[in-house]
Amino acid sequence: MINKTVRDMAEAMQGIADGATVLVGGFGSVGQPDALIDGLIEQGAKDLTVVANNAGNGRVGLARLMELGRVRRIICSFPRSAGSVVFEELYKAGKIELEIVPQGTLAERMRAAGAGVPAFYTPTGYGTLLAEGKPTAEFNGKPCVLEHALPGDVALVQAHKADRWGNLTYRRSGRNFNPVMAMAAAITIAQVDMVEPLGTLDPEEVVTPGIFVDRVLLHPVA
Amino acid sequence: MINKTVRDMAEAMQGIADGATVLVGGFGSVGQPDALIDGLIEQGAKDLTVVANNAGNGRVGLARLMELGRVRRIICSFPRSAGSVVFEELYKAGKIELEIVPQGTLAERMRAAGAGVPAFYTPTGYGTLLAEGKPTAEFNGKPCVLEHALPGDVALVQAHKADRWGNLTYRRSGRNFNPVMAMAAAITIAQVDMVEPLGTLDPEEVVTPGIFVDRVLLHPVA
Amino acid sequence: MSETSFTPLSRKDMARRVAQDIPEGWYVNLGIGIPTLVADFVPAEREVVFHSENGVLGMGPAPAPDDADPWLINAGKQQVTLLRGGAYVHHADSFAMIRGGHLDLCVLGAFEVAENGDIANWATSANDTAPAVGGAMDLAAGAKRLWVVMEHTTKEGHPKLVRRCGYPLTAMRAVRRVYTNLAVLDVTEQGFAVVDMAPGLSFDDLQARTDAPLRKA
Amino acid sequence: MSETSFTPLSRKDMARRVAQDIPEGWYVNLGIGIPTLVADFVPAEREVVFHSENGVLGMGPAPAPDDADPWLINAGKQQVTLLRGGAYVHHADSFAMIRGGHLDLCVLGAFEVAENGDIANWATSANDTAPAVGGAMDLAAGAKRLWVVMEHTTKEGHPKLVRRCGYPLTAMRAVRRVYTNLAVLDVTEQGFAVVDMAPGLSFDDLQARTDAPLRKA
């Protein structure tokens, strides 16, 4: 019997190695896999590359992981926000590397990784600092930049309902980067509000089919 | 008030010009916009490029459109099948051009057109007849072919439920190419089983958001 | 140069002026700041579909405090609502809408707009090594048309409509129209063309506050 | 060369032999022909998730005649069912599963397999100007592993396991394992390695029916 649900956080975090690239879902606090991030803090992997839209807020979650010196490099679209104090300290001190990627390019690079597209052209960013050094080409008169797929070793995602095959649905704007990251990683770990019996999720409504999901951790909303 | 539902076939077919590239949804007979194809036959546009998975069956629908000499070129993955008699006659007589595209590349090229990606690399087809003359590059040791976006002037799609904003859901394997083609065309025309009041479709279940749809023609299943 | 007496538009008036030009049926993405206010000034009977980068299409206004839904925010991380007819999509699909040219309009704020349509709105200097770009480059390059709404000059009085951007670019040749507290200007092949001016403002007054040469539309 | 007495596997036996090697939990796409039969021989208690190119994941067997659903077909256009836990996706997402390396296995038929793993299964000659490729190239290039199941020789007795493919290629260096009516062979850096042979068949008999040189695994 296929059963992707895991018993506890230790099982969820198994095998995340030092040096791993970790994709972290969520936009703002919505759809963020908070429990899994805390699990990763506990688990101990270091020298990580984190891919997320933001560079953490306050001193918890992703910010805490960075503060502990476990993140070597962050790839994101919006590093500096009101609460990104930890990132800014580390960045000024030269203790964390940063790659800024336009938000749509970030999503598309991960989707490409999930879809077996190693590289693609986009007009986004052409002629800007973020395209410096990248190959360019013109299509129908539009100058474009070549962008590469961005695969993860691990994706940490948050979803609403799941079943034991790993099918996932999301809640409203909690969807955001989660389905894209789930496609893009070698190991996808989902923190979910509910685990339903197999066959309960409407096959027309599944957003992330189980083929993209490896582990499901039940973590009901408080 | 936004109202994308059209009163009749004539309104649905308005403005399809000679020389247009027409994307036609469906896989086998499932999810095929039969009524719209008949409408296009009636409407009269010629010198068309048709993009579809197959090259028609029997002497109706797409095959009929070809038999009438209205299709200059067909782009598909599976031209020759048990019932593709019309295509084969025309092809042997040099009266229709053919571009064969691997099925996944076909889908991805249209998705790329819809997503603003003018070109992308893929390992599919590398070293085969279908990649001859195409630029190649190697990524992580994997040789790849450069494929271009395939946009349509018009997409004819079949869907299950719609609303007046053009949101669409599909029925089981009737989904197939339809959502991808809906994204990829300048004008997307949907033939639907039902038109529901706005707000009836669950926003979590909409597969093709109305932004990709221009016209909705109610055509209940017989 | 003599100064006439005029009344610059308030932030709300600027938003109202933009809203006035958005026809029914358009799909529109609004940036953070003044652009966000635009939605408030589209008449209720005129259906305009607002898009948010984080996968919300058909976004409605802020919820009543009792109805707030923590799972539904916009790209500015503010709580919003979903209109009837709205839909949720994931980030790649959301940016497919943007990058695939499906949005009729994007309205952004900016630090500078150049007469060739270049826009700078994400980094205030090349030395700012960790600026936040978000979806600005995707929106500027991808939407069918890009309008900018911003103050005509900086707080220090420096022109923001310039011959050539000094700040790092967000996109090249992207802006179609600029709405400021002093004027509405089209970006044309021949540079900025003045469509509209604040009541009482003269063309010369406007030119005096603008780096790039202006012409009448 | 002396001929021993042996029994070639039937089409069903070949499908059964393939099914035997598919472990629980794999995501598998089966091509048209003998590959399609493989699903029938996976024991009911062993959960294997079958994928069909037209956007069906978790495909079940053909429906009872009374239960036939015209809206649910597989890539071979045959009516099928959906298992509990199945899901529908569109064509680009379906091929993302294939091309993104998410399928553990694809089983295809072939005209020829070469000792370096090249496969030819879509066109019988370069002069056939309208061959139908379908999803074969995507599957061959994209799945984590590609197995081929086919007769060991053509009806005319010509070998199909060859030094180099004569027919137009579907993909280069893609095949991992070949199941024929005479043997199971791994594609290795050193060419075909025989894993298993039909009862009564000798290595020399097998080599005699094979163009490429064989070695024992």
From TrEMBL, chains A, B:
<dbReference type="InterPro" id="IPR012792">
    <property type="entry name" value="3-oxoacid_CoA-transf_A"/>
</dbReference>
<dbReference type="InterPro" id="IPR004163">
    <property type="entry name" value="CoA_transf_BS"/>
</dbReference>
<comment type="similarity">
    <text>Belongs to the 3-oxoacid CoA-transferase subunit A family.</text>
</comment>
<dbReference type="InterPro" id="IPR004165">
    <property type="entry name" value="CoA_trans_fam_I"/>
</dbReference>
<protein>
    <submittedName>
        <fullName>3-oxoadipate CoA-transferase</fullName>
    </submittedName>
</protein>
<dbReference type="InterPro" id="IPR037171">
    <property type="entry name" value="NagB/RpiA_transferase-like"/>
</dbReference>
<dbReference type="GO" id="GO:0008410">
    <property type="term" value="F:CoA-transferase activity"/>
</dbReference>
<keyword id="KW-0808">Transferase</keyword>
<dbReference type="Pfam" id="PF01144">
    <property type="entry name" value="CoA_trans"/>
</dbReference>
TrEMBL record, chains C, D:
<dbReference type="InterPro" id="IPR037171">
    <property type="entry name" value="NagB/RpiA_transferase-like"/>
</dbReference>
<comment type="similarity">
    <text>Belongs to the 3-oxoacid CoA-transferase subunit B family.</text>
</comment>
<keyword id="KW-0808">Transferase</keyword>
<dbReference type="InterPro" id="IPR004164">
    <property type="entry name" value="CoA_transf_AS"/>
</dbReference>
<dbReference type="InterPro" id="IPR012791">
    <property type="entry name" value="3-oxoacid_CoA-transf_B"/>
</dbReference>
<protein>
    <submittedName>
        <fullName>3-oxoadipate CoA-transferase</fullName>
    </submittedName>
</protein>
<dbReference type="InterPro" id="IPR004165">
    <property type="entry name" value="CoA_trans_fam_I"/>
</dbReference>
<dbReference type="GO" id="GO:0008410">
    <property type="term" value="F:CoA-transferase activity"/>
</dbReference>
<dbReference type="Pfam" id="PF01144">
    <property type="entry name" value="CoA_trans"/>
</dbReference>
